[in-house]
Amino acid sequence: DMIVYGPNGNGCNTEQEILLGCGNELSTLEGLIYYDADCDGLMNNADFMMPNAILFNDNGYPIAAANSEGFVSAPLLLNTSNTLNTGWIDGTETTYLTLTTDATPTVYTQDIGICPTPVVHDLRVLITPMNNPRPGFNLYHNVHAMNLGNVPEDVILTFDNFSMPGYFFNDPLDIGGEVTWTFTLDPLQTETFDVSGIVANTVEIGTEYFPHATIDFVDELIIDEFFENNNHSIKQTIVGSFDPNDKEVFPKEINYADLLDGETRVLDYIIRFQNTGNFPAEFVRVTDEINTSLLDISTLQMVAASHAYSMNFDANEVEWFFDNIQLIDSTTNEQESHGYIHFRIRTRQGLAVTDIITNQVAIYFDFNEPVITNIAQTIFYQCPATVEITEPTVACAETQIEIVASEPDLHNYLWLVDGMDMGTDATLTLVNVDTGFYNVQLLSDYYECSYESELEVYVNPQPFVAMSSNDAHFCEEGMISSFPNGDMYWTLNGENLSSNAEIPVYESGTYIATVMNVCGSYSDSIDVTITDMPENIELLIGDVMLTPSVSGLSYAWYLNGVLLENETESTLFPDLPGEYTVVVFFGNGCYMLSSIAVIPDDVEEIQETSFALSPNPAKDLTRLLVSKNVQGLSMTLKDLTGRTIQTSQLTAKQSDIDCSQLQSGVYFIVLSKNGIVEETMRLVVE
User: Fold this and answer.
1) What pLDDT is recorded for position 3?
2) Which pLDDT belongs to residue 220?
3) Which are the contacts of 2, defined by CB distance < 8 A and separation ≥ 6?
4) Which regions of 275-360 does DSSP assign to beta strands (E)?
């Protein structure tokens, strides 16, 4: 077989040059790294090798890693004092080894035992996503069960898809949405199980999956001393087409509050690679440059890898080398063409919330140009202490109402109004809401922080007033009513009247009712007509007739309380004795009953008189009443000197005589027919 070295720098291209440290004379520490179960410093009894364990120097940088048999060969500078340690290995105490090298290259042989922690019972579960979820394609996960305690344990491991809509198990069979394994784990032993399933082709891109695994003791009486790591869940997002050579980090977001007081967080990195060529790859090499200003390289810890590998280090650069991997190409066997690396590392103390941890790797298939992956990124965020609902200053019915979350940049919002979904934006807009009280709830989240806020909102009514009618007619006075939904006031001709809903009215006009509240003002009006009424009506008995003391629009005459049909004139010529009354109608439904006039039994004597004046004396108007046929009858008004003031031909039995222009005094009315005087009557004008 041919071994190719390089191309490297000068003095580092042959096997001999490489063995001699490429021009740098070095000593070497060689030995086995093993789990010292009884911590006696000897490899015996229940002890076992620890493949791929990493040695770190006193600066915290990795310098060597054990191979698959636990053998390590660590280069050391000449004539130096070196303090080496086994770093962060869960379930163990860090072992420190001090070695001072000579001035000449020397091979030092020293086995390194790693003691267990005093923790007796401690289980852990981790999930490695083997690929990205895509609609219609298989999705693979590795589930790692770990015993970090110092005694063998019978355990039960469960993987569920309860939060993976549209995902169905392939193998093993889906039993109620979860798969379960029961087995025994020795101290510091890890067992890895493959889980495969298919994502339905109807699942939308962007859907979030949360695969979840749990581990527990078969014996329920055993208490895990660190139960927080008995559950593990990661977030995966459904994607479309993607590059199978990628790097992913979990978590992608960290609550900065978790880093206060010097706390750190563990980041899980998964590097995935696939041979997409057309021939198996002889070897795969993956290089990763760790940002040591943000990540503590002394906490680097391997979780798992798909194939046997070795690790090499150069300061902050880590290399995984899969020699003779014979990784088959995807055209021959797609499922077997994949590989992965899963490692963990802690953040440094004192990071700022603005820090962003980025990382990407180079993947080499044989001697091809490297595939540079995407950038895996972890950010820090700060959650608001609270999320409040900002109530509008005034909320009015039949308008647009905006209710705002105090934090406008959260990830998700869900507004509930009286339990009903109403919106998913930072601002809730309500349109044409009725008056009343509303229970407003806001469910929101920002990364892993969630909030529930609640507020009682009162929606004020729009000002409104309803009138009892559009217009109203009253006799002398009346009451008008309104039905306001708030404080109100009445005006007439611009003058404020009252703030009562019901008010008395004494004059005609347009009465305006105005209602005002926080939402504005509203007015309505009612037209009021007041008909003037006399205090009373006297029924006057003339020479031949009955006449009411005031005039109206129409009349109804009664004898002894019985309506006299067809008697609707302002005068009545009684022809029967009895008690007479008249109802005078003034319009707008107003009327008044007169006093009683008693006609004696000698009514026939009254009927002998054919003419009468009423009223007499008069001021502005008097009425001439005639009981006989007026055809050919004329009337002449004269003063005391005999001067004719007015002459007219009578056409009706009732004739009005205007006295408003006459001076006070005595006048005469002469009634003639065909030139013959039939009656002369005296009229007194006041």
Assistant:
1) 42
2) 92
3) none
4) 284-289, 295-305, 310-314, 317-322, 338-347, 356-359
The answer, yes or no, to whether residue 8 has pLDDT greater than 70, is no
Q: Please tell me the predicted confidence (pLDDT) of residue 588.
A: 84
Task: Give per-residue pLDDT as tens, 125-155.
Answer: 999 999 999 999 999 999 999 999 989 999 9
What is the phi-psi region of residue 445: left when phi exceeds 0, alpha when psi lies from -120 to 50, beta otherwise? Answer: beta
Rg value, the chain, Cα: 56
Q: What is the mean pLDDT of residues 458-466?
A: 92
Distance in angstroms (rounded) separating the CA atoms of residues 500 and 515: 11
pLDDT digits (tens, 9 = 90+) for 592-620: 999 998 888 765 544 445 677 878 888 88
Spatial CA neighbour of 250 closest among 263, 267, 233, 237? 267
pLDDT at 11: 52
By DSSP bridging, strand 26-35 and strand 112-114 are parallel
DSSP secondary structure, 518-546, as one string: TTEEEEEEEEEEEE---S---EEE-SS-E
Q: Are strands 26-35 and 71-77 parallel, antiparallel or unpaired?
A: antiparallel
Q: Where does 432-470 show beta strands of DSSP type E?
A: 436-446, 449-459, 465-467
Phi, psi for residue 51 in degrees, rounded to 5 = -65, 145
pLDDT, tens digit (0-9, with 9 covering 90-100), for 375-397 = 999 999 999 999 999 888 899 99
User: Residues with Cβ < 8 Å from 282, sequence gap 6 or more?
Assistant: 324, 325, 326, 366
Structure tokens at 292: 């040591």
> Which DSSP letter does residue 370 get?
P
Nearest to 627 by CA among 614, 616, 639, 611: 611
φ and ψ at residue 112, rounded to 5 degrees? -120, 115
Q: Which two tokens stand for residue 484?
A: 């306001």
Task: Confirm if 186 and 155 have CB atoms less than 8 A apart.
Answer: no
Supply the pLDDT for residue 532.
87
Q: How many DSSP H helices and E strands does the chain contain? A: 2, 60
Instruction: Specify the pLDDT at position 113.
Output: 94
End-to-end CA distance of the chain: 154
Give Cα separations from 605 to 263, 329, 543, 560 (angstroms): 129, 144, 9, 21
Q: Give the helix/strand (H/E) hosting 30.
A: strand 26-35
Nearest to 270 by CA among 294, 293, 304: 304
Instruction: Let me know if 469 is exposed, middle or buried by CB neighbors in 10 A (0-12, 13-18, 19+).
Output: exposed
Can you tell me which residue has the tokens 């990071």? 351
**What is the per-residue pLDDT for 543?**
63
Cα separation of 51 and 69, whole Å?
6
What are the beta bridge partners of residue 622? 657
**Burial of 585 per CB tally in 10 Å (0-12, 13-18, 19+):** middle
237: left (phi over 0), alpha (psi -120 to 50) or beta: beta
Give residue 172's pLDDT band: very low, low, confident or very high (50, 70, 90).
Answer: low
Integer Cα distance of 234 and 257 in angstroms: 20
**CA 448 distance to own-chain centroid:** 18
The pair of three-digit structure tokens given for residue 147, joined into one six-digit string: 């015993």
Q: pLDDT-derived band of residue 327, with 50, 70 and 90 as boundaries?
A: very high
Q: Contact 150/187 with Cβ under 8 angstroms?
A: yes
Question: Which pTM does this prediction carry?
Answer: 0.65
User: 3-class SS at 579?
Assistant: strand
pLDDT at 534 over 80: yes
Which run of H or E residues covers position 19?
helix 15-19
